[in-house]
Amino acid sequence: MEKIDQAFLKSFMKAWIQFHRAPHQLKKRADDCLKPSAFILLSILHGEEEPKMLSVSELSKILQVTSPTVTQLVTQLENNNLVERKINPSDRRAILVKLTEQGIQLVDQQRNKFLDSMKGLIEYLGVDESKKLTELMNRTVQYFQQQRS
Question: Is residue 21 part of a domain?
């Protein structure tokens, strides 16, 4: 294993922390009252092609948090008119969560802002450097996944 210089390690850690904070500094948006986890929940319900209706237990599995945590998030989002609860037509005892029209619009707006931001980053770095960064980010994710196993 290669010996790592302490000064470089400190520099690397500082850059990592700044990199981790960078997306949060972009949050100049109307939904600043929402926690990141609430926005992730909205994005999951939005889906790629069309909005989904999911149960609290399904959402808790996807988000890897407890059902009570999801219930709190859903209540907050429902109070902001971003989601609504519906009775599951196939099991009337179960409740499904779905986006409201306002929730769909919010996710669409934020996804467009994020895509614009990523396009700007690619233009800033250039395509070749962006490809290298993508490769390094993927390798970083693999490293942390291996550390968890």
Answer: no
Q: One-letter amino acid identity for 3?
A: K
Assess if residue 132 is contained within a domain.
no
Domain containing residue 74: 33-116
pLDDT digits (tens, 9 = 90+) for 4-27: 889 999 999 999 898 888 776 665
Provide the whole-model pTM: 0.74
d(C-alpha 101, C-alpha 109), whole Å:
12
Number of domain units in the chain: 1
| CA dist., res. 145 & res. 100, Å (int) | 35
Single out the residue of 57, 58, 23, 63 nearest to residue 41, CA to CA.
Answer: 63
Q: Is residue 65 part of a domain?
A: yes
Give the CATH number of the domain where residue 63 resides: 1.10.10.10
Query: Measured between alpha carbons, how far is 63 from 74 in angstroms, rounded to an integer?
Result: 13
34: nearest Cα among 90, 85, 106: 106
Q: Are 99 and 107 in contact (CB under 8 A)?
A: yes
pLDDT tens, 58-84? 999 999 999 999 999 999 999 999 999
DSSP 105-125: HHHHHHHHHHHHHHHHHHHHH
Residue 50 lies in a domain: yes
